[in-house]
């Protein structure tokens, strides 16, 4: 328990804390309320309604955008997780020199800190170049997937690498000593210990993909609109309460997933404590 | 079963231009408990890693029985290791950790079960089978590591400072158990340690290493009582070292008088003429004469300068005029600073050193 836990916070700090929380949640709660507001323009409360939700579910554009977003997120996450894990292992295990190691660390970090807009422009130019050879690089799902994999890989590598560093080389030696082949040592000893990091990396990649607007905006085609792109497009025609309904749904799903994770941790935690 | 002695032939190894093993030559017999003893940086761990297959020697070969295993990877050697920090697999429970090697060798499941159970029993951790390594104490982890290696019935078990992370009491207890388990399983144990008490307590044979060389090879008694050089003498426990000069083949001249010794090493005997060297005598081997006791030689007059209580013995600092020696006496033999005493050094405990 923290040393300060029993001391009440000064009034000023408490006010600041509540203000911070309000700032974070008022907009979200407003969207939630508006999604049930029968009044289309939302300045006044026009009565409770599910209309916007039913309209949303009839909206073909939203459906395609949702399907596109999910396909994009799932496929890019799988590819970037596999490639990122292999890359992390490769960088960590190969006895590169110190200089080479620094070079790799930098190359992994730079895409993370590079502004999305730069990444987007770079990808657009590369695709334009490739397009002069083959038409499969026309803006569409393929370019979207390639683009998303490109920026997700770095995040996966960073997460997996940080775990890999904490697994000592003696784990491999112990496995080899106990008659495991090199591959056996990796699959029976290292990968299982990396599993939580790999899942964390995959979740991060998945959220980044769902969330991405800038890069998708530049590389998507007319038939590969994602949800963020659809929302942006429809905003230009004025905010429809359907968007509020959609936002509320997305937020609820996120909340639900978070609660699931929290519950899973809660079930796990007491067991671990009991044994201590 | 054929005997599987381990032969180490002329092993040399350098790291970044620094030679850490300078040609190690030794045979370890089947069923022996051998300790590689030396200070950190003497190359003992490197030698162990070469035997285990985790490092490659630059020169020289390793034979297990008649088979050259120098080029075999660790998974192809019938040698298992207890790693310094145990290196248990944190994602597997105790049972699965112990079963790991047998599973790699594709041993039938019921045989794995039988052997793992027997091994858990041998090292006394049957009730921990389903525990995860993170919940175990240091001593328990040590037992799991031992079981995990021994269950494979290796020709040789390598132990890399296996007890160094444990507290003193537990360490003593486990030393005894280690010795018992070694006798029960009749397996060659090669242990690396920098703790001379531990080496003396468990080993059949001690190989003392210093600066990449094997400096002495002998039983614990041998190495303790007859250290070959200054390094071994001081490393194996408290020791007085006297500078002396050769007089004859059984006599050397120290600063306070002539000392009769049992033998002088060949190098000194061969040197002829004036030849200097060191003589080692342990503090417990210097006898304080009681009135009426008489010895033919090696009796010297000294004055007690200081008396230090060490729990189970007194440590006296005896002034011989030109130098001061440390002497150990029983708790009931009380001498005070200022007392004049006669000290006797039995020839068989006077060890002329090789450097």
Please describe what this structure looks like:
The complex is a heterodimer of chains A (about 280) and B (about 350). Chain A has about 280 residues and is mainly alpha-helical. Chain A has eleven helices and no strands. Chain A has helices spanning about 10-35, 50-60, 60-95, 100-115, 115-130, 140-165, 170-175, 180-210, 215-220, 225-235, 240-275. In chain A, α1 crosses α11 (about 240-275). Chain A starts with 10 loop residues before the first helix and ends with a helix. In chain A, about 25% of the residues are buried. Chain B is α+β, with helices and mostly antiparallel strands and about 350 residues long. Chain B has helices at about 45-50, 95-105, 110-120, 140-150, 170-185, 195-200, 220-225, 230-235, 265-270, and strands at about 5-15, 20-30, 35, 60-65, 65-70, 80, 155-160, 190-195, 205-210, 215-220, 240-250, 250-255, 255-260, 275-280, 285-290, 300-310, 315-320, 325-330, 340-345, 350. Chain B has a six-stranded mixed β-sheet, with helices on both faces. In chain B, β7, α5 (about 170-185) and β8 form a beta-alpha-beta unit. In chain B, α2 runs parallel beside α4 (about 140-150). Chain B starts with 5 loop residues before the first strand and ends with a strand. Chains A and B meet through α7 and α8 of A and β6 and α2 of B.
User: How much helical structure, as a percent, in the residues of chain B?
Assistant: 25-40%
**What is the number of helices of chain A?**
11
Instruction: Give the terminus-to-terminus CA distance of chain A.
Output: 17 Å
Helix and strand pattern of chain A: HHHHHHHHHHH
Question: What's the Cα radius of gyration of chain A?
Answer: 24 Å
Radius of gyration of chain B: 24 Å
Largest sheet of chain A: none
Structural class estimated from helices and strands of chain A: mainly alpha
List low-pLDDT spans of chain A.
Answer: 272-276
Strand order of the largest sheet of chain B: 6-7-8-3-9-10
Shape of chain A: globular
Q: Work out the number of β strands of chain A.
A: 0
The span between the termini of chain B is 43 Å
Tell me the number of helical segments of chain B per DSSP (H or I, 4 or more residues long). 9
Specify which chain pair forms the largest interface: A-B, 19 and 27 residues
How would you classify the helix and strand content of chain B by structural class?
A: alpha+beta
Order of helices and strands of chain B: EEEHEEEHHHEHEHEEHHEEEHEEEEEEE
Largest sheet of chain B: 6 strands, mixed
Q: How many β-strand runs of chain B?
A: 20
What fraction of residues of chain B sit in β-strands?
25-35%
Helix content of chain A: over 70%
């Amino acid at each position: 328990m923290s040393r300060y836990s029993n001391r009440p916070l000064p009034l000023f700090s408490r006010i600041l804390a509540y203000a911070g929380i309000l700032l974070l949640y008022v907009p979200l709660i407003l969207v939630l309320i508006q999604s049930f507001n029968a009044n289309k323009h939302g300045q006044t409360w026009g009565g409770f309604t599910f209309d916007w939700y039913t309209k949303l579910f009839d909206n073909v554009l939203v459906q395609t955008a949702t399907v596109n977003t999910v396909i994009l997120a799932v496929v890019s996450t799988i590819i970037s997780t596999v490639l990122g894990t292999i890359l992390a292992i490769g960088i960590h295990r190969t006895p590169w020199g110190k200089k080479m190691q620094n070079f790799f660390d930098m190359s992994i970090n730079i895409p993370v800190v590079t502004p999305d807009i730069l990444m987007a422009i770079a990808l657009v130019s590369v695709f334009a170049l490739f397009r002069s050879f083959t038409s499969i690089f026309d803006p569409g799902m393929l370019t979207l997937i390639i683009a998303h994999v490109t920026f997700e890989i770095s995040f996966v590598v960073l997460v997996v690498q940080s775990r890999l560093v904490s697994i000592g080389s003696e784990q491999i030696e112990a496995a080899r000593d106990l008659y495991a082949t090199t591959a056996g040592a990796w699959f029976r000893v290292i990968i299982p210990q990396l599993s939580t990091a790999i899942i964390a990396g995959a979740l991060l990649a998945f959220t980044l993909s769902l969330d991405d607007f800038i890069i998708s905006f530049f590389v998507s085609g007319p038939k590969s609109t994602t949800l963020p792109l659809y929302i942006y497009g429809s905003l230009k025609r004025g905010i429809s309460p359907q968007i509020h309904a959609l936002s509320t749904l997305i937020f609820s799903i996120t909340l639900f997933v978070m609660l699931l994770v929290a519950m899973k941790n809660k079930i796990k935690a007491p067991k671990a404590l009991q044994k201590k | 079963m054929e005997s599987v002695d381990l032969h180490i032939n002329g092993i040399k190894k350098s790291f970044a231009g620094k030679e850490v093993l300078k040609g190690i030559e030794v045979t370890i017999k089947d069923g022996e408990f051998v300790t590689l003893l030396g200070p950190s940086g003497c190359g003992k761990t490197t030698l162990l890693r070469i035997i285990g297959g985790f490092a490659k020697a630059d020169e020289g070969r390793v034979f297990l029985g008649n088979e050259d295993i120098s080029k075999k990877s660790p998974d192809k050697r019938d040698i298992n290791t207890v790693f310094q920090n145990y290196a248990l697999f944190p994602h597997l429970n105790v049972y699965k950790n112990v079963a790991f090697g047998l599973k790699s060798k594709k041993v039938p499941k019921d045989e794995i079960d039988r052997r793992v159970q027997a091994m858990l029993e041998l090292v006394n951790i049957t009730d921990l089978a389903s525990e995860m390594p993170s919940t175990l104490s240091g001593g328990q982890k040590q037992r799991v590591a031992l079981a995990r290696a021994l269950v494979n019935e290796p020709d040789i078990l390598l132990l890399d400072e296996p007890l160094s992370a444990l507290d003193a009491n537990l360490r003593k207890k486990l030393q005894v158990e280690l010795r018992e388990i070694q006798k029960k399983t009749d397996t060659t144990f090669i242990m690396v340690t920098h703790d001379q008490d531990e080496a003396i307590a468990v080993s059949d044979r001690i190989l003392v290493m210093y600066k990449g060389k094997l400096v002495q090879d002998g039983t614990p008694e041998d190495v303790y009582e007859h250290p070959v050089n200054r390094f071994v003498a001081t490393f194996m426990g408290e020791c007085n070292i006297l500078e002396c000069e050769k007089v004859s083949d059984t006599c050397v001249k120290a600063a306070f008088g002539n000392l009769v010794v049992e033998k002088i090493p060949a190098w000194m005997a061969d040197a002829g003429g004036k030849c200097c060297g060191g003589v080692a005598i342990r503090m417990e081997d210097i006898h304080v004469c009681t009135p009426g006791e008489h010895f033919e030689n090696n009796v010297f007059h000294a004055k007690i300068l200081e008396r230090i209580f060490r729990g189970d013995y007194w440590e006296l600092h005896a002034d011989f005029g030109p130098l001061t020696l440390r002497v150990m006496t029983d708790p009931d033999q009380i001498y005070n600073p200022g007392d004049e005493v006669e000290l006797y050094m039995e020839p068989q405990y006077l060890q002329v050193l090789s450097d």
